[in-house]
Write a structure and sequence with these properties.
Blueprint lengths: L34 H8 L3 H10 L6 E2 L5 E2 L2 H16 L3 H13 L4 H41 L5
Length: about 150
């Protein structure tokens, strides 16, 4: 009689970014992109990608034998995440700090979570401010729409 252990094996969580557009242009294993391809795919300028690497926001970009940058799908995912952080209004220096924490590994999970929770709180506040602003604009638009319909001298 053979006994099979059916206890599920739990893998530790992996800190990966969710692909921005769902699918990558190339499947894993065939995902070597030049800087111009990444620029076209992400909408970032090649200069910006080089700068991200220089400041530590985009470290460990692979190089071809002749020294050219070769990006992979994981790099595209990271750039999509960085783009979302930019949309939150997070300063570049804070993003570089976050990238450094990622490089340090699992021991920084709590610190990274705190940063993201604080950023989320700031986004929620901004959304509320924008909703209030939108309501004021709607009132003004309605006013001017009604004012145009009213006959002059009325």
């Amino acid at each position: 009689m053979t006994v099979i252990d059916s206890t599920p094996v739990k893998s530790p969580p992996v800190d990966v970014c969710v692909p921005a557009g769902g699918e990558h242009p190339r499947p894993d294993g065939h995902d070597r992109y030049t800087i111009s391809e990444v620029a076209a795919f992400t909408g970032l300028r090649a200069h910006t990608l080089r700068w991200y690497e220089q400041i530590g926001l985009m470290p460990h970009v692979a190089r071809s034998p002749n020294g050219r940058r070769l990006f992979c799908n994981r790099d595209l995912d990271w750039l999509a995440f960085v783009g979302k952080l930019r949309l939150t209004g997070m300063p570049v220096a804070a993003m570089v700090q976050f990238a450094e924490l990622v490089r340090q590994g699992e021991v920084t999970y709590d610190e990274r979570r705190e940063i993201l929770e604080q950023t989320r709180h700031e986004v929620v506040v901004r959304i509320a401010d924008l909703q209030d602003t939108l309501a004021v604009l709607d009132v003004k638009i309605d006013f001017y729409t009604g004012a145009r319909r009213a006959p002059e001298g009325a």
